[in-house]
Amino acid sequence: MRKLKKRKDGRYRLIVRVYDPTTGKNKPLPVYGYTIPEVEARSAELTHKRNVGDITNPGKLTVAGYLDAWLKSYKGKLAEYTINAYENYIDKHISKDGLGNILLLKLMPMHIESFYNNEREKGFSEKTILQEHHILHRAFKFAVRNNLLSKNICDLVDAPSSDDFLIKIYDEDKFNKLLYYVAGTKDELPILLAGMCGLRRSEVFGLNWLDVNIDTGNISVNKVAVYSKKEKAWILKDKPKNKSSKRTFAIPSEILPIFKQRKGIGLVCCNDDGSIVSGGTYSHRFAWLLKKLDLPHIRFHDLRHFNATMMLKYGVSDKEAAGRLGHATPNTLRTTYQHILDSMKTDGANKLNSVIKKNPSEVQIGVQ
Q1: Is the pTM here over 0.85, yes or no?
Q2: Are 307 and 201 in contact (CB under 8 A)?
């Protein structure tokens, strides 16, 4: 614990050791104040400023300092859920590692590649590393636009491969087996909303019964459930990911009777006391549920992917499917599920195999 020392002039003095990016070493600095809270506050401010650098002085600006300033400037364009995710990647991965202490103007491709390799050694997936790459690329693009960098360094680095995490999707038999097991339980509606209606997890747990019109058979997606760091609680947010995210579409008629039977007030999917379900907590529950039912592991979000592929498989147009899913453009739909569409083409070709009769006894040959 740091030691406070009271001086003869009545002020407290605290020696803090902070990282100096110009020398790459820690150095002691004194902090003064007439009260202990004042000293602690100044110490925290000094430590933060010295550790991240100063945006007004690019020569002393670290990568961590730049990312901190960039996110504060850029967050107005992002949904709260995305902001939380970005902060998590930056604070717990990028800035926490050695990459954060490097001066922005001295950053080289080898530093980023070394960071990615360190992440792999720690056991993080290629998907996590690719997300980090996307964040860095977007941040450095902003730096180029503001003349802090002459080029985007991430353009000189090979992006992590996404081949290792192709989407896992249930076939119809497995999905129906899951529905059979959860029928009448509190897991039925979340699974139907994700698997048959294509809602995102935040949309599932932000849906209110007021937004489910039983008479017309429509669902309106108006709110999302997100975790607010400011309020330290899950809240309902009226700001969708993009304009297309706020949408109204028809519930498949086969499952509409279930919604009629379960019609209530407040949130459609909630805790026993009516409060908002934590998305992360439910994802863990979903994994536990699949293990209990002896079903292959998939993420809860993969039920949304199941919905998308079923629409494409059964001939729903790209435009309508994108509208139901809340995608900005149909192109997003095709890009996301291209590898699945390719496998569908193979399946279609294989179905033609039944045309060829392998057993000669099945072939009737007449005399002409």
Answers
A1: no
A2: no
Query: Which helix (H) or strand (E) is 204 found in, with range?
Result: helix 201-204
Q: Is 27 helix (H, G, I), strand (E, B) or coil?
A: strand
* Domains within the chain, CATH numbers bracketed: 4-51 (no CATH), 63-165 (1.10.150.130), 172-350 (1.10.443.10)
- Read off the pLDDT of residues 90-111 as tens digits, 9 standing for 90 and up: 988 888 766 888 888 889 999 9
Give 45-48's long-range contacts (Cβ < 8 A, gap of 24+). Answer: 46/16, 46/18, 47/16, 47/18
Six-digit token string for 16: 């803090």
- Two tokens at 210? 């007021």
- What is the CB-side half-sphere exposure of residue 340 using CA atoms within 13 A? 21
Q: Which long-range contacts (CB under 8 A, 24 or more apart) does 68-73 make?
A: 68/95, 70/139, 70/142, 70/143, 71/139, 73/142
Q: Phi and psi (nearest 5°) for 306?
A: -60, -45
**pLDDT tens, 137-176?**
999 998 888 888 889 999 998 888 765 455 678 989 999 9
